[in-house]
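Subject: sequence -> structure tokens, single chain

Hey, anyone have a minute? Need the predicted structure for the following. Not urgent.
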Amino acid sequence: MKICKKCGAKAGDGVRFCPMCGEKFPPDMPRTWKEASVPVRKGNLVTFGIYPQSAKAKSVKLERTETLPFGSAIEDKFNKYPLWRGDDGEYYTGSSSDIYSGEEFKYEPIVWRVIREEGKKLLLLSDKILDTCGHIVGYRFDCSYGVRYYTKNLKVYDQGWRNDVWVFYSEEEMGKSAYEESDARGWLNGKFLNSAFSPEAQKYILTAKVDNSARSMGDKDNFLAGASTRDKIFLLSYSEAAQTLGLTDASRKRKRTDFAAYYRHIGDDCSWILRSPSGVPGVKTEKCVEGSPMESALIKNGYRETGSSLVGGWWHACMVREDGTVFRPTYDTIEYAVPAMWIQMP
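Reply:
Had a minute. Here:
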């Protein structure tokens, strides 16, 4: 319940203007989907956007619906998730798969933490693990855009990777980074953006220059570095998570929503990925243009061409562990996502 300071009239929670005199009420932290299309700040937290999070209470009864008054329905690789309207006035979603049927999750405002501030421009990081990048289990960076791969005496995967690799690209692809080509980036700026934010809400999200250089990866020899991208939603880089934003182990820890925990069966691990691809100590990797003299020289020196699927297993995403520490894995990484974005406060 709110009371207007100007005329004393009473109004319900969520009302933005006095029904008697029109006086604007100070913003509350949004608690329902109706209030989350405009960013609202309270201290170091901002509530903005909507995503399925908490499991439905058993007492709530549902009816199927086809549309949402905000954003769009959650999608996996193949189908849209079904939608329901509860008798509590809230919206819910479930899985498109019969395997996971029987559980529904409420669309709720997303809470973000302010990690950098430049006037009314805020850099936000999700306060919880919301989902996985593109619903891809065993997510790793897709480096298949390399044209040809050459190596010498390649060992099998379970014996470890300790040989040098030369990756050849077309002229067009030479400047691209692994993150630019990754499924994670496509999902964040496509399905996630349009599911969590209505067209009205997206007007507050700034298009940011995202650094994909070797420096951002904290690894000057990382050949998967490349040109910066321009994105609305992104993942933090290794350097941002570990150094430049002043985050601590405690401030990097995240808990999962019920939605993320239920559909992504990854045990109890609450690690989350960064946009920087990892490397493997002892492996030398070079990046060259397809058809260059170096390609012929390698063949003469005993190198042979191999499939991208073999060498692609090297480049996993850097991660933040459950305890908040940042590290470079050499194995399939957890695909949990903690999105970041720059917004302009109203």
